[in-house]
Amino acid sequence: MEKTDVELSVLVAVYNAENFLEECLESVLSQKVGRMEIIVVNDGSKDKSQNIIQKYLAKSVNMKVIYNQENQGTLLTRIEALRYARGKYVTFIDGDDSYVPFSLHNILDLAIKKDVDILEFGYHLLNVEKKEIYKHGMCHEKMPMNEVIKNKKSCFNLLELYNLEVPLFKRFYSKRLYKRVLNYFIGFNDYKLRFKNVLSEDEFITPIFFAYAKSYYYSNQKIYNYMFQNVGSITYNIKQNTEKMIKSAEDYMFACSHISKELRKKNLVGKLGYIQYNLNGINFFITKCVICELPFKERVKKTIRYYSFQDILYFYIGRYFINETMQSKKS
Predict the structure, then answer these.
(1) Phi and psi (nearest 5°) for 149?
(2) Which of 52, 182, 272, 308 has its CA 20 to 30 A from that of 16?
(3) For 105-159, how does the pLDDT look when each residue is reduced to its tens digit (9 = 90+)?
(4) Per-residue pLDDT tens digits for 161-212
(5) Among 188, 185, 186, 175, which Cα is nearest to 208's?
(6) CA atoms within 13 A on the CB side of 8
(7) What is the DSSP code (8-state) at residue 92?
(8) What is the pTM of this model?
(9) Under a CB-based contact definition with an 8 Å cutoff, are residues 225 and 123 in contact?
């Protein structure tokens, strides 16, 4: 396959997914996309995932494997995969998920036809028995249909305007876009330390994709099968472990603080947008702290690492004073 021939790069992040990985890779390899490459990154799995990957590597000349001996976390795994991507578009899949049969070519054709930086699609949320769990808002019923959204600010505003979900897997991204995002992250000299083992990885990377995007299109086709509560996955383990839940919430708070500053520098959000992004991070963190019964002093210690006293003050004014005022007006 010539370098210029690749139309789609499917980036597969694998971590301890031996129970689901064969189904995942089968679902990718069986897609009817003529010029597709599959880039698999094994992020230091401790199970039999690597053996499964090697078996499937022999089945496809278009499959490339990158093996990280040390676990780096999903964010760095995806950044590493982007370094090797050559496709006109890329999309992401986790090793415990799968695609609906014969579906990728439809989305690829649509992305090429519309010539957009981001094409978003729907997904099925499944439990371990493969039964669908319906989730409010998962199909974005209010999203504008059959309409290409253009210019950077309009694309970025979609995140807040329609409360878009951040998972990276539910979109195609153009080469122009993913190269910009890759350069953004590797532009930090210490990015491998800065972003190692971040648990809320999509909160870091998705806003950057939207910040650089110049065009967006939404399709309600549901082509991705998201497996909820794989016992080996990060998401499941967070729910079983209070310390991990707090770490994940702290990472999310860090993401909001980090991204808001970058977006402010690029003049993609105004002062109110900057404040709102920070409020989102603090609110999510405090909510998890309440669930985990983390003492108030510990909350303050962690919050002050990423936010100024002014930011924290804005949060408490916004959450308590403004909300109580609005409630009193309604009554």
Answers:
(1) -90, 130
(2) 182
(3) 999 999 999 999 999 999 998 877 777 776 544 446 677 778 999 988 788 888 8
(4) 787 888 899 999 999 999 999 998 888 888 888 788 776 678 778 888 998 8
(5) 185
(6) 25
(7) E
(8) 0.79
(9) yes
Length of the chain: 331
Q: Can you tell me the distance from the alpha carbon of 230 to that of 131, in angstroms, rounded to the nearest whole number?
A: 14
Calpha distance 314→206 (Å, rounded): 25
- What secondary structure does DSSP assign to 300-330, as a single string? HHHHTTTS-HHHHHHHHIIIIIIHHHHHHHH
| Structure-block tokens of residue 70 | 């040390």
Q: Lowest-pLDDT range, 99-108, 223-232, 314-323?
A: 314-323
Amino acid at 275: I
C-alpha pair distances (Å), 56 with each of 27, 33, 240: 12, 17, 32
Residue 290 to residue 63: CA distance in whole angstroms:
45
Q: Parallel, antiparallel, or unpaired: how do β-strands 8-14 and 171-174 relate? A: unpaired
> CA distances (Å), 8 to each of 29, 36, 200, 263, in order?
13, 5, 26, 29
The radius of gyration computed from the CA coordinates of the chain, to the nearest angstrom, equals: 20
Instruction: Tell the residue number behind the tokens 């520098």, with chain if given.
Output: 265
